[in-house]
Amino acid sequence: MRAITPRIRQLVRARRRFLGDSDVEDVVQEVLLSVHAVRATYDPARPLMPWLSAIVRHRLADAGRRHVRQGAHEIGVDDLDVTFQTPVANSREETFGDPDALAQAIQALPPGQRQAVELLKLRELSLKEASALTGMSIGALKIATHRAIASLRRALRGTDEG
Amino acid sequence: MRTDDLIDRLGRDVAVARPLPTPGMRTAVWTVWAVSYLIVVAVMMFAVMSSAGVTPTPLYLAQQSAALVTGIMAARAALASVIPGGKNRVWVLPAIGVATWAAALLGAGALDLHASGTLGVTSQSDWPCVVSMTLGGLVVGAPLVWMLRRGAPLTPGLTAFLTALAALSFANIEACLTRPHAFAVTVLLWHGGTVAAVAALCALTGPRWLRWPDLRTR
Fold this sequence. Notes:
- The structure holds two protein chains of two kinds.
- By secondary structure, chain A is an all-alpha fold.
- Chain A is 68% helix and 0% strand.
- Chain A has helices at residues 5-15, 21-37, 48-72, 92-95, 99-107, 111-122, 127-134, 138-161.
- Chain B has one domain (3-209).
- The chains are: A mainly alpha, B mainly alpha.
- Chain A binds chain B through residues 1-2, 5, 25, 28-29, 32-34, 36-44, 46-47, 50-55, 58, 118-119, 123, 128-129, 131-135, and chain B through 1, 3-4, 6-7, 9-11, 14, 17-20, 22, 82-86, 150-152, 154-155, 212-218.
């Protein structure tokens, strides 16, 4: 895996020149997961590159289709600061938006909860993918996420009030 | 998550994956299953009716041989389509098979026209064959779907189409074995229509049931 990763990265970059580094890395990771899942289809008697290139090509196409599908349901907004002037409308939840405090609160979480939040909420992986990566069951991931969100809510409320 | 961490996780506790047999070998395994199913149906028909109810004329045998070859080639193409890096035009051989099968039926239709003065388009409805082929196709096709799900769904629509074509080609032989047809065009319209409709439906729904394998470390 480690040996073929630079080649996968190179292939992804060559085919999607407009992608940023983090997007490239997302696709690379998706390809690695796919390679791992269908490794039984590789015949050691045949050359590796056509096999690998085919997976990269199709996973890139899948990612492109998913991007278009998601884009069709999203509306680009240039300015998000639309709100009412009255203090009542600007509730505590709406005005809270300190990313540093949020990052600190996430770092303060127990490792299991932190990992669940990072995978499910920040990286937006599915439960199944997160389960595959962590080895935790889907139920345990749900519980960890629920507890993490509750802890974050408590911690951030304290920060906001303080 | 960093890519290096992902690689570490994927490499941890991973079992050695035994390479899949070649598409040809897997096709042979599936063909044994499909032919066994046909033999069981034929034996049951002989036991119940003392005869399969059909006369094995050369034309009949040519049609069924074409259907058999189409089924085998479609199964091989479907199994090859889930191996990354294989040939892109896997559909060519099944397409030739379908063309040969249709030509055999059209030839028989021309002979019907010469002998009876009609193609018999409206002479016989064939709903029992539609039901029989659909159910038989499920029995024959289910193991093929199971085999395909071990591969990479690179072109799920095409793979699903070829799977349905393979299964229904065999189911067509079963339907022709158990129910005699007076006119070849009846077979072409009803059996061909069933194959086309089910295959098109499978092609549309293929991406839903031919997904990338579970990404959980196996």
